[in-house]
Structure formats: structure tokens, C-alpha cells
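Example 4.3 (complexes with small molecules)
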Amino acid sequence: MRHFTSLYDVPDLGRLLRTAADVKRNPLARPDLGRGKVLGLIFFHSSLRTRLSTQRAAMNLGLEVIVMNVGSDAWKLEFADGTVMDGDTAEHVRDAVAVMGQYCDILGVRTFAGLQDKEADYAEPVLQAFIDHAGVPILSLESATRHPLQSLADWVTIETYKQVERPKVVLTWAPHPRALPQAVANSFVEWMRQAEVDLVITHPEGYELSPRFVHDTPVEYDPVKAYEGADFIYAKNWSAYYDYGQILSQDRRWLVDAEKMARTSEAHFMHCLPVRRNVVVADAVIDSPQSLVIPQAGHRVVSAQAVLQEMLVHLGG
Ligand code: CP
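Answer. The structure with phosphoric acid mono(formamide)ester bound is encoded below.
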């Protein structure tokens, strides 16, 4: 696997899942695979889990890691092509990315949706600049529209904790005071559609995700009906896709609470974190034995390491 920016970069999903299972069983089995190679982690947006889990995964493989927070550490970047750069941007992203590629064997990049211009966000200009100009393999640490490392960790979590062959998995929208991207929800749907699960999406009317991700996945506007018999409740806020980037509802009835969880089949609760307690999920749910948020975050090391292993093998690591 050369790049990892979405499910569609994975040439053999079954093999990647087997690699992840191997990594989960024995994370220190390949300590020399990355020896002599450098992984750059470039952040255009804040991160706790992605940064630390990818660093830990790299350490397990013998990779050296360089981290840069672009907003605070780099020259102010220009993204538009053909610009007369006589304003406050000091370096073009084409040049900056090509230089980063000189120092690193693999580059991970975290970008974020601006939530102003849907076409621009969904064209993934920053991620594409890395793919076009770095000259080295690119690992998405979350882009404007997808978060595939999170989705792989979510898949591993569901495989680990499922108690029936084909669990019912509910992706539920939840309220949030800020407008957030659709990336985690898009990716979760994209990956779960390939899994042996019955996936249902539930959200208030107006929060429909892009049909490019949803396809024929069932959508239920009544969360009480959606929760019925669920084995996993995966909560996430996202802003509107059609009224792009808008907050259309703060309806607290969408909070994941004990009352709705009681309608499930003793479902596990999942969230990618960070989470706003008692806005997205009640303390009684996230602190319950059914909550998987901590092992789910732990599986971020597994997903990052499995993907890095496949990228290093492709590089001839
Ligand atoms: N879930 C996730 O990606 O967390 P961070 O934003 O902290 O990396």
C-alpha cells in the first residue's frame, strides 16, 4: 500500500485486518521494520490521540518520528496556485511539502474542513498537495472529509467486542456547540459498509450525510427506533452537509443517555473522542461498563501500526 488516505487506497482489506489482528496480539513483533526510516507527522489542526498513537506505533516499528504543528512552527503557507505572494503568506504549500518529502520516508498529515465551501473541502486540496508534491507515501491523520485511521480502529474495536456474528451498529448524530466536519461519520459509514454488520444511521432531518458515503444505508430519523436492539451505539456530531457547515439543531433529546441505551441489546457505547460530556453523551453512559471509548482509543495504535507496516513493506522496509 503506497498511500493511506481512504478505504480505496487499501489493496487488500482482508490482509490489512489480519495485520491489525497480528499487531493487536503482538505489537513488538517487527521492531526493525522501520529501522533507518523517518516518519514526518504534519499537523494543520490539534490532535491528542492521532499524534500520540501514531508516534507509539512508529516506535514499535523502529521508525524515527519528526512532528511539526504547522500553525505555530512553520512559515505561513499559501495554498492558492498562481498567487502573487505579496501578502502575509511566506511559503507556498507546493514548496513546503516538497521539502518535507526530502526529510521523510513517509509523511502523515492532518488537515481539517474549513466548513465554508463544500466543493473545496471535498476536493481535499491540502491532502492532494501532499500526494502531488511530497514524492513520498502519504498517511492521512484525518482529512477534511475522512478519518480512515479512526475507522480502522473502530472496526478492530467492534470485532473485539461483538457478541453476535452480525451486530447491529448504530451511528447516531449528537448535539455539539461548535460546527464539526463530517469526516469521522463519513469514514465510519464507508468502512462499516464493508463489515459484517447491520449499519443504521440516525440523525435529525437536515443532517443527511453525502450520498457518496451513505449509498443505501438505512437512515432513521427517530433515535428511539434506531436504538432498538442495537449492539453498538457510535455517537458523533457533524455539521450539515447540504446547508454546508451549519448547525441546524442543538436538540438535547439526541444526547446519548441511559434511557435510550436501555432500548438497545445492552449495546456498547463508542465515540472517537474528544467528547463533550453531558452534551454528546451522559456521564452515566460513558462511565458505564458498556463504554468502549478507552479501548477504542487504544486501538488507534493498532490501526496506525498496521497501516505503517503495510506502507513500510511497500517501501521495501
Ligand atoms: N479521535 C481523534 O482523532 O482524536 P484526536 O483529534 O485527539 O487525534
